Amino acid sequence: MPYWLLKSEPDCYSYADLERLGRDHWNGVRNYQARNYLRQMKAGDPCLFYYSSTKPAGIAGVARVVRSGYPDPSQFDPSSDFYDPKSPQSEPRWTTVDVEPVQLLPKFLPLETIRELPAWDASPLTRKGNRLSVLPVTPEQFEAALAAGGAEDLLTTDH
DNA sequence: GCCAACGTTGGC
DNA sequence: GCCAACGTTGGC
Hints:
The chain has a single domain (about 5-150), classed as ph1033 like domains (ph1033 like fold). The protein has a 6-stranded mixed beta sheet. The protein has 5 helices and 6 strands. By secondary structure, the chain is an alpha+beta fold. The mean pLDDT is about 95. The termini are close together. The structure holds a DNA duplex (12 and 12 nucleotides). It holds the Pfam family EVE.
């Protein structure tokens, strides 16, 4: 089963917002590489919910994909910040997925600590200049993040 | 198709 | 707020 990491600015959209809504679209991704990953996501895939552009940045919680990729409606909405007039209706350019909350990490996992986890050495997340907002995570990275965040092992308790 | 300019991301 | 990194745009 693939694992993913989703970035969000918590001032804009936090884990608590997702928890309050119960389920939501992960929309507004306007980067082709991130979009291609969104298109690979399947219902049931676990995701790490990452806070960017905040102090400190890091992983706040775990979410799960509940609906795989479909056209992001906001690309066709002129009143949306994510409106893309160049996206053809016949072949929508941008994709969204639906996610639901799974759990808040008992201990917020700062980027500084993520960098100390050997499994994360190879991740784009820990590389300088990284700007990818949706990225794949290995099972080892996922487990290491949960352990460091004091969470239950979802690999054995789920599914 | 190249590449300079520009805009955005994101850690610090 | 700064600035490095990098994606996108547009002129040629």
